[in-house]
Design brief:
The chain has about 230 residues and is mostly beta strands. The chain contains 3 helices and 14 strands. The protein has a single domain, classed as outer membrane lipoprotein receptor (LolB), chain A (Clam). It is about 15% helix and about 45% strand. Helix 2 runs antiparallel to helix 3.
Length: about 230
């Protein structure tokens, strides 16, 4: 596994980034959960319909990480997605995923790790959307903690609190501004070990007819790149 900065693995980054996509499926999860606020579901559904659901898009984000014992660290990245195919950039790494193959490229090392994406059932093992699977268990309850008027718009602070005491998060907070549409602007994750992660969505751009090559690592564009293929 390639490492990022202070030992942050790609898996840990995906755990942080999962919340960027909560609006895609979270509303469906809590349609019958009486503990969750229906207004939260309506807000998330509107964000999903406007920006994510069955769309091709590019999302520009910034993550600020406060980890006990370390100084504040920030980095920016982008996600481009079409169906199960995506390209993810963060720090000095790039991840390409197309059909059954994933490429993880380290700019610092000029090397790429090639792996399979399919699980034992022949399904795609990971996309930025499928990291939401733990939400489908109903482990979090959604509620509106606060709101404030911003001219003609309203900003809502939506909080998700875990049902299980074994969750690594004490709460997750969304900032959603509702006007004509609902826009997911910031996400804050509060871990029980004292770590805090704040994700700012800088821009979401809807796209059309993305070429397959967008999601495929082209070794010819990286002179002298070392390729490590671990596919069976």
């Amino acid at each position: 596994m390639l490492l990022f900065n202070k030992g942050i693995t790609m898996r840990q980054l995906f755990i942080i980034l999962f919340s960027l996509y909560c609006s895609i499926t979270f509303g469906q999860q809590y349609n019958s959960a009486q503990e969750s606020d229906p207004k939260c579901i309506a807000l998330l559904d509107q964000v999903s319909t406007t920006y994510f659901q069955d769309k091709e898009y590019n999302l520009d984000y910034t993550i600020a990480m406060e980890i006990p014992g370390y100084p504040l660290e920030q980095f920016s990245g982008e996600i481009t997605q079409s169906g199960d195919n995506y390209k993810l950039t963060f720090g000095n790494q790039e991840v390409y995923a197309f059909e059954d193959t994933q490429w993880t490229y380290s700019k610092e090392k000029n090397e790429v790790l090639v792996d399979e994406r399919l699980d034992e059932n022949g399904s795609v093992f990971f996309t930025p959307n499928t990291i939401l699977d733990f939400y489908k268990s109903g482990d979090f309850i959604a509620m509106i903690a606060n709101s404030e008027a911003l001219g003609t718009a309203t900003r809502y602070y939506v909080e998700f609190k875990p049902i299980s005491t074994e969750s690594e998060y004490s709460k997750i907070r969304f900032e959603i501004t509702q006007d004509v549409n609902s826009e997911l602007e910031k996400i804050s994750l509060f871990a029980k070990d004292g770590s805090k992660y704040k994700i700012t969505i800088n821009e979401i751009q809807l796209l059309e007819d993305l070429a397959d090559s967008t999601f495929i690592f082209d070794a010819e564009q990286y002179p002298d790149v070392h390729i490590e293929d671990i596919r069976l």
